Fold this sequence. Notes:
Helix content: 25-40%
Distance between the termini: 170 Å
CATH architecture of the domain at 6-135: Sandwich
Number of helices: 2
Strand content: 15-25%
Amino acid sequence: MTDASPALLLLLSLGLCCPGAQGQRITVTAKFYNSKTTHPQSGKSLELECVSSVDSGVSWIRQDKAGTLHFIVYISTLPKTTFKGNQMTSSRFEVSKIGKSYRLKVKSFEAQDEGTYFCTVNYNQALYFSSGLHAFFPVTTTAAPVTTVSPTTQGSQVTKRDVCLQSHEAETSKEKELNFFCEIFIWVPLAAACLLLLIALVITIVLCQKTRRRRCRCKRPANGNPKMKPKVPSQQI
């Protein structure tokens, strides 16, 4: 743990090694002294308040964005203050005590003061932590810059109508290609079927003619004249 004083190490060791008081409920709460405060403002003061159910002294600790704990000050019940490095005063912080309220004031809040603040109470050989109080600058979102296209010459400008015409021509050419392929798929099989029917019809006609010739062919004598029946002589009385 970097940037930690012996007082912070002592407090943590007491909290980890020693059991809490049995049968007694201790509450420790950290909050902004001004209830309207939600975020610190750069260069302005920020006052925090720690309220404990027992009057046994309070320590203020800050946890930075990296998770490192930094000891700020210990305020006793007298009150007597001990800052980092066993100093009695600090150029950056002010403390005060009214009853069971222990206040910490950051004189000029800067980026190095951002973090989560805790106050701890060491009572009856036990260390009690408050919930973390987040003190960060509000996140500012910047809008993306809007880029505008500067007007150029009329000949180089592409109007909306030109774009529509180009897209329409492209769609028309695609439709023509699709129609062409559709016609091929329809007419080629149809033409082939017609050709097969024509061939079958020709074959049928040829076969019919051959069969008819065979049936109608007559037998002729060798001299080429048909046989004549012999005449029966008539009897005269």
